[in-house]
Specification:
heterodimer; A: 113 residues; mainly beta; six-stranded mixed β-sheet; four-stranded antiparallel β-sheet; 0% helix; globular; B: 118 residues; 11 strands
Chain lengths: 113, 118
Amino acid sequence: AQSVAQPEDQVNVAEGNPLTVKCTYSVSGNPYLFWYVQYPNRGLQFLLKYITGDNLVKGSYGFEAEFNKSQTSFHLKKPSALVSDSALYFCAVREDSNYQLIWGAGTKLIIKP
Amino acid sequence: GAGVSQSPSNKVTEKGKDVELRCDPISGHTALYWYRQSLGQGLEFLIYFQGNSAPDKSGLPSDRFSAERTGGSVSTLTIQRTQQEDSAVYLCASSLVKLAGGQQETQYFGPGTRLLVL
């Protein structure tokens, strides 16, 4: 069965410091991995995805994520956090043979000035 | 082009009433998805459309929930005899194709409809 885990409910980072939001997954086949961000009272915005190719994926707003097959992880990273990055972040996965996305529970990212 | 739009943005209703939520997907997107998000929670899959057909209704929580899609475009999610536990944000997403790699299958979300059942 497919599953996604975001082990941290909340991550606190000081502005200017690097940030990491963790995601691990479990699928039977090849994974398609996604990160979305949700700002307060807004819908979800697509950040980036891994389908195939380079393990390091670059996305919107300076975010990047690294696909690690051996560790079944797809952690979201940013070298220097901004207060405006504060939001709820969701990781999602689907198998290459399945349309349905499986979603993590979300991680609340708080960037303090 | 225009993104996914949903209406109404907010809906307050009384327990027992029926509600209809509308989703306008991105033009040309054949796949459409409905999700439910309770306060501070992750996304709960409700139903998926490919064109006008719904091959997967497995996420609908009860027979009070139904959805249709006409003309391969607009979709409505109907909740009959609403209950307080139906209160949530209902999100709609669309993607260009059902199964593919690349940009086409990324799901793009609308702003959601916030439903409050009193």
